[in-house]
Amino acid sequence: LSLDDLAVSLQGCSHEVRISDFFQALKESLKSAILSSNQPIAEIVCYGVGNFGASKGCAPMFQLAFAIAVREILSSAASISERETSDDCCSHGCHGSNKVNLIPMYFYDPCMTQQESIVLERNSIQLITENERGRRRVQHKTLFLMPHCPLALYSNLIHTNWGQLDNVIIFGNLLSAYASRLGEVKSSVKLLQQVEPVWDESVLPISK
What we know:
Blueprint: H1 3-19, H2 21-36, E1 43-47, H3 59-89, E2 105-108, H4 114-122, E3 126-127, E4 142-146, H5 151-160, E5 168-172, H6 175-179, H7 186-195
Helix pairs in contact: 1-3, 2-3, 5-7
């Protein structure tokens, strides 16, 4: 696909994502989670999305469109929170901006093409230049979008942030399903089993 074709296809996928019942339900869940949290999500990291430039309307392109839509929701919520804080601190003659500042988003896929990297940069998505293998240490509350990633990637992420797991939010496969597979890589499964009693796991309904 050409760059223009990629841009048009991504725009179309983004529209389909935003009007889907699934995303509407997710949006309400996100809003509830944001309102109940005293610390907003500061950044988003995308692992395992895949080659979204392979063909028009392919699954990876929908996954990227979904990530962009989620960032818009979180950025809007963060901006509202910042304005409310600003209003509390500056209630006499100060006027806050209604501009929404996008929270940082980072992307890595080992098979990413040059054209795909250009599309990402045009959408204000920063490229991760090396394979972190999930070993990314967070400094703030971070949402990891990890669709269909292997067990090792989840395990590496959890192990790397063992002392600050309250700052890690994962959108991906059910970790409890991995933890119950005793026949798989024992060290990774054991790590998940240690964390399982304290994580908060929710299952999202699948709909069109």
